[in-house]
């Protein structure tokens, strides 16, 4: 039987020690359902340290990535308040961080608001390589996130996104890359949370998924993500 607690501890130790570890499945193969149990155990450890769950992040929201990983549905990870980046991000506690542009949702009682955002990814595995169960167990590589001003609902099916690092454009894309329309990712998040018995409450934050590939996030850098009609969000690393 898979030792859920021990595997969650391995990933927590990787975070604490800022040290990548081999894929968990190399020594103890497990399935997707077990992977989510490991993820939940890891989040429970964070909660015992005082962190608070505030939303979810979606992964594998592009058809190409689904095909690559051999899946027919999105995956998800949990967001906590400790992951929220206001204006400055200290990279000393991350192993090999990457950043990607995002569309972010704020769930309301009768709808949602949207913002442009970014997600910082940091796989706890060596060489940023993993299987599907591994990445789910690792909370979908979640490490940090931020967002700009909230906007009332509008057509988000083809929002142009630009990500710059130190004034140089490093990625451009469209929100159409997120399941054809990021609102579909929002609906998937609501469905998955409900099916898991942890429905999303008003005030929950949802990262809809990557609109482009993630790029390495360097130290002492200024990152800006701009979304057409949604303004921009910035973060400085140190």
UniProtKB/TrEMBL annotation:
State the organism named in the record: Actinomadura fulvescens
Q: Which Pfam families does the annotation name?
A: FAA_hydrolase (PF01557)
List keywords of the entry alphabetically.
Hydrolase, Lyase
* The protein, known as: Fumarylacetoacetate hydrolase family protein
The chain positions of domain Fumarylacetoacetase-like C-terminal read 136-236
Q: Per its UniProt record, what InterPro entries does this chain match?
A: Fumarylacetoacetase-like_C, Fumarylacetoacetase_C_sf, Hydratase-Decarb/MhpD_sf
Q: Drop me one GO molecular function for this one.
A: hydrolase activity
